[in-house]
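We emphasize that the prediction below concerns an isolated chain of 75 residues; any contacts that depend on oligomerization or on bound cofactors are therefore not represented. The input was used exactly as deposited, without trimming of termini.
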Amino acid sequence: MKDLLFSDNPVVISRVSALLEAENIEFSIFGGHASLFGGGIGVIQSRLMVEPKNHARAVRLIRAENLENDVDLKL
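Result of the prediction step, given as a token string:
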């Protein structure tokens, strides 16, 4: 798995997850539960990961939806 993005915003994580699901791109979210306990203070971020072969496609989807500025995108 390869890092796609980091975010402490559960709404953005949910939106990106829906985009990836719609395109049948498998992903994993790490730290999702911990970031909820952090109270949104930005200290604990969720990390969304995809298979390396799907990384470029996932980045294009995020950019097409203008979400690039809402997440810490890993290129």
